[in-house]
Amino acid sequence: VKDKNVTPVILLAPGTYTDTVKIKGNLTLLGANAGISPFVKGKAKTDVWEVNPDRPTNESLLAAVIFVDKATKTNVEVKFDGLELYRGFSFIEAGARKTNTIVDCVNTVINGAGNASYGTYAATDVFSFSNSATITTTLNISDTYVKNLKTSSVAGKGLTVLNAKNVFHTSSQTPFLGGADGPKDQNPTYYISDSM
After folding, report:
1. Environment class of residue 44 by beta-carbon count within 10 Å: exposed (0-12), middle (13-18) or buried (19+)?
2. pTM, whole model, 2 decimals?
3. What is the 3-state secondary structure (H, E, C) of 11-39?
4. CB of 97 within 8 A of CB of 130?
5. Tell me, what DSSP letter sits at residue 49?
6. Per-residue pLDDT reduced to its tens digit, 4-43
């Protein structure tokens, strides 16, 4: 995906997708459950959150690497909506870039993702950014259900801005921000609200 003037929108039907996608521009991936939250929050803050009975169980499983090429010279925005990011998935931003990256993850299930690689680039975490002092990397994540992470965290190295809202993190052995580590000369800003 190379055209910097167009944001390609790819619609993924229910099924499993394992092909690596190498990008040099914006990209939107819409799964079978785009616009449908994976869980239902209780009315009171102390109520247990539940799986959304109105969300179909036939998910679009993305078990592949989304790789941002280090030669990309423009800002990049990638959106995930209504997917299940499955085992074998990682978002990897290559090093030595000088442009900003924004990732939007909404209405998505993160299920055992992380620990993937592309060429010489490897990512332990689900979202891994280049640890460059000259760029801003942002992860906006909302209405997302995180489960079954054994050695991976959701946010990995190089993350400078996090906006997390309505994130349900359960049945995992690692913390949500376990791998987060912003560039040394920047002050990372992490906002987490209405999450558990």
Report:
1. exposed
2. 0.91
3. ECCCEEECCCEEECCCEEEECCCCCCCCE
4. yes
5. P
6. 567 889 999 999 999 999 988 899 999 999 999 998 877 7
| Three-class HEC string of 139-158 | EEEEEEEEECCCCCCCECEC
Token pair for 158? 């190089």
Q: Which two tokens stand for residue 51?
A: 């799986």
Contact present, 115 and 123 (Cβ < 8 Å): yes
Give the distance from CA 57 to its chain's centroid: 20
Integer-rounded Cα Rg, in Å, for the chain is 16
Q: What is the pLDDT averaged over residues 120-129?
A: 86
- Cβ contact 83:60 at 8 Å: yes
Nearest Cα neighbor of 179 from 131, 108, 141 is 131
Q: Is the pLDDT of residue 3 over 60?
A: no
